[in-house]
Hints:
By secondary structure, the chain is α+β, with helices and mostly antiparallel strands. A four-stranded mixed sheet has the order 5-6-9-8, covered by helices on one side. Helix 8 (198-217) crosses helix 9 (223-237). Strand 5 (135-145) and strand 6 form a beta hairpin. The radius of gyration is 20 Å and the shape is globular. The N and C termini lie far apart (50 Å). The protein has 13 helices and nine strands.
Amino acid sequence: MVFQDSVYYSTLMRGDVSAVMTYLMQFPEQSYRLVPLQQIFAKEQYISYDIPPKLNSLILAYQQYYRNVFYLHMDIKLATQQLRNTLAQFLDIHDECVDLDTMEENQIASVFSHYGLYFMGGKTDGYYGPYIWKTSEDKHYSVELPDGMQSYTVRMMSGFITKSWLDYVSNGEISTGGWTDRDGVISCDSSAYDLEGEEFQISLLKHEAQHAIDLFRWPNMQSNQLEYRAKLVELIYSTKRNLLKRFLSEADPHQVDNGHAIASYKIISAFKNYMDCHEKALESLPISQIQKTALCLFQSSRSNED
Length: 306
């Protein structure tokens, strides 16, 4: 048996750490990936960050939540309630009406701000996990999209301490490079990109800019539809990378809370229907054909929303 990156990464993105560990155990050369997971999830030797003890105690609650959800497969509602209660106890919050989202936005963000750090809570692909970083600087970009040029503010963040659950369970191999706020500001981990490369210019900048314009036009658009349209934009403009192959590996119709996985599945299904071909044929599709097909699918998607 040969180790396959695609199996490893797709299992990680499903958040199934126990399955990842079982897979890695078959390959001695993968011990550098396996050992950290065993230490954290099997032995509960949690990470201690170079920050004040009070802040480490708050992050510890999230680390325990990750173990409950991704390793022990605890019911997500129960795990979330335990996380909420642990944080409330630490922050001396006795009002049961204060939910986790409110707690993160107000009390927890305030604690980190007191120590000069930025904190953003909420869910990423269905699971809680904070983004915590040290510095932030706003820059302005003009971005070409299928509907024309648009100007956007990009918040360049650096000095990340944590980047939510996927970064944690993958030991930093996979993480969110950026996101779009409801106010249309694009946030970006500046250390994760070559600012002249396609990964930044297209997969971050154009992808998130499309989110911004779609959220402005259709505030209630579902996550998987937002991702579907933004991923099509990536395919339209990418010339140096075959992103369709990446989306093939990400596609999973069963991850109902994962907008990226569902969007990739929708893209693969749409390509197969549009080209009247089997999935295997998409692996060898020329980039020029990918671009043309993606543009047609994007235009069709746009008309469906209008």
